[in-house]
Amino acid sequence: MRRRTSAGTVSLLVAIMACVALIAAGVGFGQWYRMLLEIQRERLSDIVWSRAAFMEAVYDYDLQQALRKGENESRAFHDTLSQVVVAHRTYDGLGETGEITVARRNGDRIAFLVRHRGSPVEVPDAVAWASGLAEPMRAALEGRSGFVQGTDYRGVQVFAFHAPVPTMGLGLVAKIDREEVFRPIRAALWRTGGLMAAAVALGTLLYHRFAMRLLRRAEERERFLDAVIDSTTDSICVKDGEGRFRYVNSAFAAGFGVDPEWLIGRDNAAIVTPDEAAVMERLDRQVMSEGRVLAYDLKVTQQGRPKTYSVVKSPVVGADGRIVGLVILAREVTKQRDRARAVAEERRRLKRAQDIAGFGVWELDPDSRVLHLSEDICRDLDIAPDGSAGEVDAFLAFVVDEDKANVAAALAGQGSFDIEYRIRRLTDGRTRHFHMAGDRDTTAEAGPRLVGVIQDVTDARLAQAAIEAESQLRKQLEDIISQSPVVVFRWLNDPGWPV
């Protein structure tokens, strides 16, 4: 039978839709997270590069001034550092945990010179070089620059941008705690995720209800269609391009004594003999290859009994224009074909009897006034053997003038009649004698009409005329003999007497 979409399939589709929505949301959050990190990177890198350029420019100026005054580089270093401290006091654009640190390497330790976290400016304690702390600063003091996520001097995970200040032998780091960066992301994630989850749940619920409503309607229509198809006694089935059954109605399955579901996926060989299956497959291929409707009678064996079906096969065309299968409608016509054969045999016997008896049949439609004659009578009349002599007036054209009125009156009446008439054949002008008898038939499906028999009695009439002529001649001879007894006596007693 027809396969139906289940509610479980709809639920699976809903789950897939929800998963796709969640994946899309995850991808969106991932893009947002990368965008925030990029913003932090650009922000911190701008701070570091601008501060590094500022420190180098100030140091170059202070160094030139110190050398002009005869002072050493140490004086220029401290003057520059003091200006950096003053500049840091006026900068507060790194949020709650953001800070800028400046440090140098003293042996195996990292000595911080400046730490700015808003106000005031403080100096953190030095940390060991190999301690694993202050990862961004260690990278800067190694001469590297870049954006990293690592542990600062406090042991806290931070996002930082680091760069060296080579002219002063310092490292410069701008950083912000990862927690501060993630805090708004988590809050937004919870808010957006909650809203999205609610939206997905609502959408899933609405989609599920809508889909289930459509599914119920589709199933109702499908059940109605199944009921309509199953209510017919005709056998209906659908096959795919490989000849496998994809749908059968109850009548089809019942004819072969199998369950409809059992037939799905099987081919002709599952229900008929190998020879019958070969014939059916050949006809299937013909419809598939020619792409046209094919109608024919098919004899098959069903549950051990031979049956005859009138079959109509139609190709099924897919959306791409290719033939993808067949629709087959079959009606059992075993009794009709048996009756047709019996009628044909009866007609053959009747025709044989007519030929032996030398008569035919005729029928007159009173509405159309068309006279139908049997083939042998048409042949006797020397007209086309199509079973029709045309209208009555056309038939009367064959009748000799002396008999026309009698024949016309008989065919125009509503009762029985028995007449004889003569016709003159148009091809050779010979006259033929016919005997016609008829009566009104009220049992015909097409309505009342005149029917009867017709027989060519020309030979009988000629024989009768010959007999009558011979009889008349005998009578004349008898009259002569009765008037000449002597001659007769002599002739009777003397066989040698000349006649």
Coarse morphology: rod-shaped
Low-confidence stretches: 1-5
Rg over CA atoms: 59 Å
Total number of beta strands? 18
Strand content: 25-35%
Query: Which structural class should the secondary elements be placed in?
Result: alpha+beta
Key descriptive features of the protein:
499 residues, 50% helix, alpha+beta, six-stranded antiparallel β-sheet, disordered N terminus, 18 strands
Question: Nutshell version of this structure?
Answer:
With 499 residues, the protein is α+β, with helices and mostly antiparallel strands. Helix content is 50%, strand content 25%.
Produce the secondary structure layout.
Layout lengths: L6 H63 L3 H17 L9 E8 L2 E8 L4 E2 L4 E2 L6 H7 L4 E6 L5 E9 L4 E8 H54 L3 E6 L4 E4 L1 H7 L3 H4 L10 H17 L3 E9 L2 E13 L5 E10 L1 H24 L1 E6 L5 E4 L1 H6 L7 E4 H5 L4 H12 L4 E8 L6 E11 L7 E8 L1 H26 L1 H9 L6
Antiparallel strand pairs: 1-2, 1-7, 2-3, 2-4, 5-6, 6-7, 8-9, 8-12, 10-11, 11-12, 13-14, 13-18, 14-15, 16-17, 17-18
Helix pairs in contact: 1-2, 1-4
